[in-house]
Amino acid sequence: MQIRRMMMLFSFCVLSVGFFLDMGACTAVPTELRITSIKQEPYTMSKGTQMEGFCMDLLSEIAKKLGFKYKVQLVKDGSYGRQDENGNWNGMIGEVVRGEADLAIAPLTLTAAREKVVGMSKPFMQTGISILLRKDISEETGFFDFLTPFTAETWVGILIAYLGTAACIFIVTRLSPCEWNQPQSEQNRFSFLHSLWYTAGALTLQGAGPHPRAVSGRVICCSWWIFSIVLLACYFSNLSSSKSSDTTHLTVKGFDDLANQDMIEYGCLAGSSTLAFFKNSNNPVYRRIYEHMERTRSFVSSMDEGVRRAKEGNFAFIGESVSLDLAVARHCELVRAHEVVGMRGYSIAASLGSPLIKNLSVAILQLSEAGELAYLRSKWWASSCMADKAKFSAMQPHSLKGMFLILSLGLGLGALLAVLELTSKSRRSAAEQKKSCCTVLTEELSLRLRTNNPNKPQENVDKDKEKA
Asked: pLDDT per residue over 3-38, tens digit each?
């Protein structure tokens, strides 16, 4: 009886050890994993006998965390993975399904169809579907685009400055005795219309005589000339910037615009998840886009072909937004539309039920929380078109506040000098006529600020006498 119990205990121990050894064999990570990838910039690229790129750096970081070795091989048929009519998969997904590779790391979109046949990790990058076009596919020029360098408030301020300067020239040239010495017998050269004409001539750098002789008038004119030069420099600078920036205002701003026009051809990557998105969508706009692509067979065989056709013009390439962002960073003549639809993620694929999936997802989340994924994104998506990213904005009034201040000070100083000139003359005349200075100054002001020529009635009387 005791021997039987010992035999049963021994058998139980042997079975337990065998069970746990079998479990360890199932969950152990192979010492060297077979990795399949696809050559696409900047995810996986050849560098001599080695591979480099975003996915290679990501794979290296994950391998450090999980402690495995790997060997990378490029997918044989150059495809991501699509199911044919018989239910068989090609590309990287097919290699993982058939056991030819342990992992597939690439810009592999996480979809329901792929999730059914392989295990997919947490996404290491978020993306969507957008449109890539040439920059010179732009909106038509408007009739009043020449006003775009300045805002409406700035134009109003310039108009007020123009009218105020013309009014100051008109008043100062009437007040200053150096400009109009004998108002009883002389005709003032600076009427209000001539002041407007003179100010407009200075604004266009053409000039219009006669010029003021008095110091007060010259101070005002110099202030206006300085204001005009700076204003014109800012205007032409902003006009040039606005014209170069006009190329980013696309006629096709989204998928609605793309579906409602027939001037620009468009297409996407054949057999891609982008095509599947439009094919399976119930949105009428997306269905029209898919039907158009099917009817015209405007598909491209690779990402590089889509970028090349977009660069040639009159073609809009529909693809993953992150891939299009890379194309924009590499090719300065391209621009991506702002609209992004069908948000999805890029994931790593493993065989269905593989214990690697859980570990891969945890490692990806840890890298994301540590900022490593953001660093890799900035490293491989660095743009060579930094200057083209500056967007034009119309100049606001506060941008010219310094020049408006200088003009205001010049107008005020000119008016003050004109009053001082008139006061000085009134003092001399008061001393000669033995009158009070205030009386003489009041008479001078009354005489100079009359709109009609005081000698005109007397001239008319003299002409009537001659006729008689």
From this structure: 555 655 555 554 444 444 344 433 445 568 999 999
Q: Structure pTM?
A: 0.51
State the Cα–Cα distance between residues 228 and 235, nearest whole angstrom: 10
The C-alpha atoms of residue 310 and residue 340 are separated, in whole angstroms, by 18
**Residues 185 and 225 sit within 8 Å (Cβ to Cβ):** no
106 neighbors 37 (Cβ within 8 angstroms): yes
The 10 Å Cβ neighbour count of residue 268 is 26
**Other C-beta atoms lying within 10 Å of the C-beta of residue 311:** 16
Between CA 174 and CA 447 the distance in angstroms is 10
Distance CA(143)–CA(333), nearest Å, equals 26
Query: Which residue, 129, 51, 74, 55, is CA-closest to 380?
Result: 55
Which phi and psi (to 5°) does residue 172 adopt?
Answer: -65, -40
H/E stretch holding 343 reads strand 341-346
Alpha-carbon distance of 377 to 216, in angstroms, equals 64
Using an 8 Å Cβ cutoff, are 176 and 217 in contact? yes
> Could you give the CA distance from residue 435 to residue 27 in angstroms, rounded to a whole number?
117
Residue 105: burial class (beta carbons within 10 Å; 0-12, 13-18, 19+): buried
What span, in angstroms and rounded, lies between the C-alpha atoms of 317 and 334?
A: 11
Q: Which residues of 116-140 are buried (b: 16+ CB within 10 A; e: fewer)?
A: ebbbbbbbbbebbbbbbbbbebbee
